[in-house]
Design a protein that fits this description.
The complex is a heterodimer of chains A (about 375) and B (about 325). With about 375 residues, chain A is α/β, with parallel strands linked by helices. Chain A has 15 helices and twelve strands. Chain A has one domain: P-loop containing nucleotide triphosphate hydrolases (Rossmann fold), CATH 3.40.50.300. Chain A has an eight-stranded mixed beta sheet, sandwiched between helices. In chain A, a hairpin with a 2-residue loop joins β9 and β10. The C terminus of chain A is likely disordered. Chain B is mostly helical and about 325 residues long. The longest helix of chain B has about 35 residues. Chain B starts with a helix and ends with a helix. In chain B, about 40% of the residues are buried. The N terminus and C terminus of chain B are likely disordered. The chains are: A alpha/beta (about 375), B mainly alpha (about 325). At the A-B interface, α2, α4, α7 and α8 of A face α1, α9 and α10 of B.
């Protein structure tokens, strides 16, 4: 795997809180090949955003990386100094955030904000940056680019702001684009447009993309490979086809069953019982054990390692083979109609992150 | 994809909207008192600027034959016991007051904004040291610090300006630090860092412009406050030293014989009061115009007016 663009190994992140240490990320490994789209899926608090923010050096406040490496183009991002990291951020790694409403500077014109990154990284001169900004605005689908160049963010709608954010993120033609829940804060129609746009840009600029989402529909729609995270650990990692046809982790299967599609009746849904846990100590057993229907004594005693199930398909479950045999076929059944195409994401704009809460409400 | 873009394009095309500044002006205009205050402040600034040239006499000129002369055509505001023409004194006072108060407020603002940005942005030790200094400034009365500084530095324009300006920075520092803390961990700064912006860049182009409105409002309140401090220093004899005229000097000297020569009190005190209250109206109007969120429900005029009266009342008590 020497040719990986980004390869993260054994990443650990902790947060100091007044009531103790929160173990947010507990030994995460993943890698992104050039041109690949990696989806990281998980509930709120599963550590998916934190792991990516930490390798970018963007952890806020009391968060701290306590271990691991993150090799990007031969350099360990976790060991770089601040200035070196600032150099890489925005030039080699672009980033899009969840809420375009609050991510743009309200006092700066849209065009200037797009030019800013290019000028800061000396990607091109002022004239070149201006022309590229105009071209980018058109590429991301903002009409009347010349007039919009001089607009302020408050004159833009949510979808247009997200487009502007994307333009900023890809301005310097980064090798890697990290999208942290880019479609969570926008309408479903805009969501589809944004995803199509991301895919277009990725193909045009030959970027790798890491897409963080809690929405299975979005992930299965655009990703080549999907990682499922829970309690700061990777539960399952599989290429899209395997992921759809042969999910082998109870949590993955539980998530898939919680997805609400158009026409799904409440009694057809099967929510995962309990709520996602926050680890106040390093995991000493399978973090999913107490919510798992396949749980055994082994699960309560030992942390399952992430192990290969088949080529490129990794699972962290003591009973993955049995789970696959028992429920895999079932899962494949549900996966079949979902296939691909832009409409899938709109259909399954996932509410499954709330499914756990609903279950406790009904209980 | 092209089709999607095209439809999106039609949907999002909006009429040209008004700039933030013109919207703020529109909100400001609705407030009659603020508008009137702005007119007075404008006249005050113009008179302060041209005062020395239109004043009938130099501030130091005395007319012994006309000492304590009541208001007349020749001396519209009367004269004092040395025969100073009070109109000229008032006009020169305006010039001095503008120089001192605007200079002092600007000085406070610059020190306060720089330290506030620094404290909020860097956090840690810098934040702690600066904020303890702020606590210190709030703990000791600024007026006494001004007194000491005047005694130490002297009684002309620049020392008085420094004496008033230096103790005033803590307000701005605290305001700016608070706003910066609110933004520092926000999405905007995170996004800026994500594209590789340095700390200095974020402070200059992201944080500073976003606190400018609030700082400007604080400045508008700071100028009349400094005007009061300046007059207060004169009243206790530690302001601009006569013959340099100032409102405080005139009012303090008139007090000794207010029954005999009341015009010496009426004109300077009335003009001073009008200027002061106009500044406060302007500052209040700016606050409403620039921070509309702090004054939600502004559509109901009566409620708003009530709110304003209450706030002014409390300030008057102070």
């Amino acid at each position: 795997m020497a040719e990986d663009l980004l390869s993260v190994e054994d990443l650990r992140v902790e947060f100091e809180r007044s009531d103790g240490t929160v173990y947010a990320v507990n030994g995460v490994d993943f890698s992104v090949a050039p041109g690949e789209t990696l989806g990281i899926v998980g509930e709120s608090g599963s550590g998916k955003s934190v792991s990516v923010l930490s390798i970018m050096g963007l952890l806020r406040g009391n968060g701290q990386v306590t271990g691991g490496t993150a090799k990007f183009m031969g350099k360990d991002l976790l060991k770089l100094r601040r200035r070196q990291l600032e150099d890489i951020r925005g030039r080699d790694i672009g980033m899009i955030f969840q809420d375009p409403m609050s991510s743009l500077n309200p006092t700066m014109r849209i065009g200037d904000q797009i030019m800013e990154g290019m000028l800061a990284h000396q990607y091109t001169n002022h004239k070149g940056a201006f022309n590229r900004a105009l071209q980018l605005l058109e590429e991301v689908g903002i009409p009347e680019a010349r007039a919009r160049f001089r607009s302020y963010p408050h004159e833009f709608s949510g979808g247009m702001r997200q487009r502007a954010m994307i333009a900023m993120a890809v301005a310097c033609e980064p090798q890697l684009l990290i999208a942290d829940e880019p479609t969570t804060a926008v309408d479903v129609t805009v969501q589809t447009q944004i995803l199509v746009l991301l895919r277009e840009l990725q193909q045009k600029q030959r970027m790798s993309v890491v897409l963080i989402t809690h929405d299975f529909g979005v992930a299965t729609n655009v990703c080549d490979r999907i990682i499922v995270m829970y309690a700061g650990k990777v539960m399952e990692s599989a290429p899209l086809a395997d992921f759809l046809a042969r999910p082998a982790h109870p949590y993955t299967i539980g998530l898939r069953r919680s997805v609400i599609e158009v026409g799904t009746q409440a009694h057809q849904l099967k929510a995962i019982p309990g709520v996602a846990t926050t680890l106040m100590a390093p995991p000493h057993n399978c973090p999913f054990a107490e919510r798992c229907q396949w749980v055994t004594d082994l699960c309560r005693a030992e942390v399952p390692e992430l192990r290969p199930l088949s080529d490129g398909h990794f699972v962290a479950c003591h009973r993955a083979e049995e789970v696959l045999a028992e429920a895999g076929a079932n899962g494949a059944e549900r996966a079949a109609p979902r296939g691909d195409g832009a409409s899938a994401s709109a259909r399954s704009r996932g509410a499954w992150s709330q499914a756990g809460d609903e279950a406790t409400l009904h209980a | 994809m092209a089709a999607i873009t095209a439809t999106a394009g039609v949907a999002v095309r909006a009429p040209r909207r008004h700039s933030q500044l013109s919207l703020a002006w529109r909100r400001y205009k609705r407030n009659r008192l603020a508008l009137a205050g702005a007119v007075v402040v404008f006249v005050y600034l113009v008179l302060g600027l041209i005062g020395p040239w239109v004043a009938p006499q130099n501030y130091a000129t005395t007319n012994f034959l006309y000492a304590n002369h009541p208001p007349s055509l020749r001396f519209p505001f009367g004269t004092d016991n040395l025969g100073h023409d009070m109109l000229s004194q008032v006009l020169w006072s305006m010039r001095n007051a503008i120089e001192v108060t605007f200079g002092a407020s600007l000085l406070s603002l610059v020190i306060g904004v720089v330290l506030g940005l620094w404290a909020g942005m860097r956090g840690g030790l810098a934040d702690m040291v600066i904020m303890r200094l702020v606590d210190f400034m709030f703990a000791i009365p600024g007026f006494f610090l001004s007194l000491f500084l005047v005694v130490a530095m002297g009684y002309t324009i620049l020392p008085v300006l420094l004496a008033i300006g230096i103790p005033g920075w803590a307000q701005y520092a605290r305001l700016v630090r608070g706003l910066v803390l609110g933004m520092r961990n926000g999405e905007m700064v995170e996004a800026a860092r994500a594209f590789g912006a340095s700390r200095a860049h974020i402070a200059r182009l992201y944080l500073l412009p976003n606190v400018a409105n609030s700082v400007f409002v604080a400045f508008a309140f700071g100028v009349p406050f400094d005007l009061i401090v300046m007059a207060g220093l004169s009243v206790v004899g530690l302001g601009l030293r006569p013959p340099l005229p100032s409102f405080g000097n005139m009012i303090a000297q008139a007090g000794t014989n207010v029954l005999g020569y009341p015009w010496l009190m009426y004109f300077p005190a009335a003009i001073f009061a009008v200027i002061l209250i106009s500044f406060l109206f302007v500052a209040d109007g700016l606050q409403e115009a620039l921070n509309p969120k702090a004054d939600e429900g502004g559509r109901i005029g009566r409620q708003r007016r009530g709110g304003r009266a209450r706030r002014l009342g409390s300030r008057g008590a102070f």
